[in-house]
Structure formats: C-alpha cells, structure tokens
Input
Amino acid sequence: MKRIHIILLVFIAGTIALLIGLMDTGSTYETIAEAKAKPGKFVHVAVRLDKSKPVEYDAKKDANYLSFEAIAIDSSRESMKVVYRNGEIPNLMISERLVLKGKFVNDHFECKDVQTKCPSKYKESMKPTEKSIQTSTSANLPAGQTSTASTNLEATK
Output
C-alpha cells in the first residue's frame, strides 16, 4: 500500500470513531422528573411558565436575577423552580413553551440559557387563498360596496 492510502485509512477510521463518540452527546429534551433525577448534569428541559405563580425580578435589587415556576408541558403536576442569572427574558409572559438549558442544583433548576417559543402571529382562521381573493376584490371596489366574489365566498363557508 502506498503511504497516502494508509494516511487516508487512518483519517477515515478516526472520523468514524469521533462520530460514534459524539452520537451519545446529542441533546434531547428531558422532563422535569428526569432533570431532577440527574442533579448536576447539563440538560435541556421543555416546560411551560406557571402563570399562576409570580415571576421574581427586581432590576433595582439585582438586575441579573430572575426566578419563576415552570410546569411540565404534558401535565401540570410536575413543577420546579427556575433561577436564571442573566437578566430579564424577553417574551417570557407570552411564550407558549420554554426550552431551558442548565442543570438541577439542590432545590431549583439553575438555567444558563432560555429559548422562548412564542405563539404564531399569523391567524389560522382564514386560508391564504381566501385572504388574497378578499383583499384583491375589495381593493378595487368603491367604498361601501361588496363584491359578489366575497359574498359567494362567505356563502360557501
């Protein structure tokens, strides 16, 4: 074998070994119970904000401290206190879901990073084609007059 072939084989074997080693480090979302069962281990937890409990944030006292209560997405029986030490989280109150990155320490989840999953700003009530038909027909009409296309569209609903 030539020297280049041996080097390529060693490189390919090293790449395969590296990929196999990294397969186990892929992150998946943990539940609250799994995060509590693995104290000190860095995990990603998908939760919802418990809006019945207060969010503790006082910029005058400590602008970097924020704590809140999080509940599991699938049930409201599992909950945990979350402490975030990087200031206020934008869109926290309107988010549908949160992805917390951190580790469970003592009695709370010490969060290093937060991703907020906000509700869609687009309404699902009207199909895109119906919306374009309505806007194009009503834009060409005099004020107060309705088109037959939009009247027929309303009748088919």
About this structure: The first strand starts at residue 29 and ends at 30. The radius of gyration is 26 Å. Residues 3-23 form the longest helix (21 residues).
